[in-house]
Amino acid sequence: MSRPPNYEFQEWWNKQRSKDPADDQFSPSTSDDVRFLTVNIQSPESAVAAAAAGKDRSRSARQLSWIYLLKLNRIAHSLAFVTSGFITLIRTANRRIATSSDRQRSDSKFYKIIKFFLIVSLCLLFVELVAYFRGWHFSPPTLEAGVEDWVEYIYAKWLEIRANYLGPLLQCLTNVCIVLFLIQSVDRFILVLGCFYIKIRGLKPVAEMEYQLDPEDESMNPEDYPMVLVQIPMCNEREVYQQSIAAACIQDWPRERMLIQILDDSDDADVQSLIRAEVQKWQQIGVHIIYRHRLIRTGYKAGNLRSAMSCDYVKDYEFVAIFDADFQPAPDFLKSTIPYFKGKEDLALVQTRWTFVNKEENLLTRLQNINLAFHFEVEQQVNGWFINFFGFNGTAGVWRIKALEDCGGWLDRTTVEDMDIAVRAHLCGWKFIYLNDVKCLCELPESYEAYKKQQHRWHSGPMQLFRLCFVDILHSKVSLAKKANLIFLFFLLRKLILPFYSFTLFCIILPLTMFLPEAQLPFWVVCYIPGVVSIMNILPCPQSFPFIVPYLLFENTMSVTKFNAMISGLFRLGSSYEWIVTKKLGRSSETDLAAFGENESTPLLEGGVSKSSSESGLAELNKLEITKKAGRKKENRLYRKELGLSFILLTASVRSLLSAQGIHFYFLLFQGITFLIVGLDLIGEQVS
C-alpha cells in the first residue's frame, strides 16, 4: 500500500522555492567562487519585483547601519557621562580626604567596632573568593571525606565552625530583630489606621469660644483676652532673629494683654547688639517686648526658659507661648490656640504643626519633610486625639503656666527638656491637645552636619530621660494603661527598639548572613516589609512618592547616628549631654521679611518709628554679615562611620554576588552606595 502524499511538505517546499534567490541556500549566488548547477526560470515581472526587493533590502541595510551608529553614539555618551561622574566623585573624595582635619577624626569605641567589622568582612571575602575559584562553593570539602592540602583543611574547618556555632547564634539574633521589626511595623500600621479613622470621621478638637477677628469691632473688650507671655529663646541666631521677633510682635492680640520676652543667650557681642536694637525698634512702636541676656549660660535652653519664668511679673500671666528663633507664627496664632483652654482646666498644652519654608531646597530637606510630615500628621494627631498625650516639640506650642509650675518647671537634666516636661506633666494628670490645622512656619537644616547633630540630640535625650524617670513612672498615680503606654510604646518601642533593629538588622546582620549563609534573612524582610513601611511613612506627604527609594536607603543610613545616640544616652557615653544649636540659614527671612516690610509701613509705623531706622539696621546687619563671612570658613566633612559601613556593605554585596542572591545583592549594593554618598557629605548643602 503506497503512502499518502504529504501535502504539508509540498506546500512548505513551494514556499521555500518562491523565496528570493538571495535568501535561498539552493539558489544561484552572485559570488564568483560558488555556483550551483541549477536553473532559475523567472518571468520578467518577477525579475523586476526581485530587483526592487533587493533595492529595498540595500536601503534597509544602510538604515540599520545608521541605527547601530546612533546606538553606539548614545552608549559612548552614556559611558562618558558615567566616567565623568565617577572621576568627579573620586576628585571630590580625594579633596575632602586631603582637607579633612584631625579634629574630624573619630576615635570613639563605636568607630573602632565598625573598623573591626570591616577588617573581618575583608578577610572573609578573601576566603570566599579563594573557595569560589577552587570550586568549593559547588562541592564544599569536609573533614570526613578527606582534604588535599592545608588550605582545604582550613576552609573545611571554617565551614564546620560556621554550621555548628556561628550560624545558629546569628540566626537567633536575626529572629529576635525580625520579631522587633514586625512589632514596630504593626505599631506603625495601627497609627496609620488611627489617622485614617480621624480623617474619615472628621474628628478634631473643638474650642468652646472664638475671639473676634475684627479689631475694629467695638464690642471687643481687651479684658476678655487672657494674659499671654511669648518667649523666644535664641543663641547666636544672626540669620533668623528678625523674622521671629517680627512674627511675635504682629500677633493679633491686645498689646496690653501680651508681653514678649527675647531670651538671648548669645556669646557674640555683635549679635547681642543687633537683637537689642531690633527689640528697641519694636518698643518704640508700642509693643510690649523686653530683652533678657544671661551672663552665665547654664542649662542651655532649659536654663534660659527657667530663668525667664523666675521673673516676678510672670505671676500676672496665665499662658506662655514658646517659639524657637527660626519660627514664624501666623498673626492669628494666639487666637487659634488660646480658645481651646477655655472650659478645660486640666488642659496643659496646645501644640501646633510645623511647616517648612525650605522643604524643597535639596534632597536632604525633602527626606526630612517626609519624616516630620508623618510625625505630625500621624503620630502627634493620633496620640493627641486618643490618649491626650504626646511629646512636646519644644516650640510652636502654648502652655498653661500653672501646669508648668505644677510639674516642677524646666529642668536641664537632659538634652530634651521639652519631652522631659511633657512626661512630668502627663504623670501629674494634665492633658494635651494637638492642632493639625494650625501651622507654624520654620526652617529645616540644609547641611548633613547640622541634621546629624540635631538627630543625635533628639535620640540621645529620650534615653537619658527614660533612665531618669523610669522609677517615677512606676510610682506615679496615673493608670496602669498610661504607665504601659509610656514605658513600652513611647520609650522602648519608638525611641529604643526602632534605632536598634534598624541598624542591627540592615547594617550588621544582613552583611554577616552573606558570609555566614547558615543564617538566613528572608527576602521579604529585606524587600517587602521595608517597602510597605516606607509607603506608610510617605502617605502624609504624597507629593514625595518619587523619593520613596532614596528615603528608605537614607533612613537606614541615619540608623547609624540614631543607634549611636541611643546607646550613648542610655549608658551616658561620649557627648550624650552635648547641646548644640541647630544651624539656620535664614531661608524664611528671605521670603517673609519682605511681607513684614510691606505691612510695617501702614499699621505698625504709626507709633513714630521712621523707615530710615529700619533701613539703617539692615545696613548694619549687612556690614556685620560681610565681616563674619570673611572670617568664617565653611567646608564639607568626611564621616568615617558612614564610610566604614559603606565598605562593609559593598564587601558583602560582592559576596552575595558569588552566591547569586539577587535581592540581597541589590539592597547591599545600593545601601552601600548611599552610605558612601553620605560619608563623603554629598547630600545636603554643598560648599565649593
From TrEMBL:
Domain of life (superkingdom): Eukaryota
Residues covered by region (Disordered): 1-31
SUPFAM superfamilies cross-referenced by the UniProt entry: Nucleotide-diphospho-sugar transferases (SSF53448)
Bilayer-spanning residue ranges: 75-93, 113-133, 165-183, 486-515, 663-683
Location (main, coarse): Golgi
Any one GO cellular component localisation term in the record: Golgi membrane
Topology relative to the membrane: Multi-pass membrane protein
InterPro entries, per database record: Glyco_trans_2-like, Nucleotide-diphossugar_trans
Cell compartment(s), UniProt: Golgi apparatus membrane
Family statement drawn from the similarity comment of this UniProt entry: Belongs to the glycosyltransferase 2 family. Plant cellulose synthase-like C subfamily.
Protein name as catalogued: Xyloglucan glycosyltransferase 6
Organism: Sesamum alatum
